[in-house]
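Deadline looming. Please check this record:
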Amino acid sequence: MGAIGPLDPPLGAYDHVAGRVDAPLALLEYGDFECPYCRAAAPVIEQVRARLGERLRFAFRHFPLHELHPHALAAATASEMAALEGRFWPMHASLYAPGPPRLTQADLREHAVVAGVDPDTVVWPATRVVEDRVEADFNSGVRSGVRGTPTLFVNGEPYRGDVTVERLVTALTAVRSGP
């Protein structure tokens, strides 16, 4: 597997960010809504967010592995359509709800209702207008060395440890030394 990092582009205004944009700690995930490892990481990340509170900003970028996960791209574009209405995070939460992934077109419509979005907007062909956004996230992942999901960046640096609450909190709050 090739080298990972640096994050390209750095976390910025373009990203979907939960938490204060000026928070001193940053966690970014390249994820896929159909990936079982991303689904397992989602509640861990929520616990990390709860523990660090306003000190943490969490960002999500799409990296749909459509060769392995046939519904991942549709789920990514559905979440982007929700984002157009300011509802990215409610859609993200619904798509990662506990249990097996439910990502068919009919399921995406149900997730939209839960997220407070018009269900007709989150399915193809309406989603064509956001395909470039998902592609941009994916390409940034490729430039950053992402090969699988979830891939996490802690304070802009690649994270290589176990995805546990304690390990992530420790990595996020570690005092960095050097230049």
User: Anything to note?
Assistant: The first strand starts at residue 16 and ends at 18. The mean pLDDT is 94.
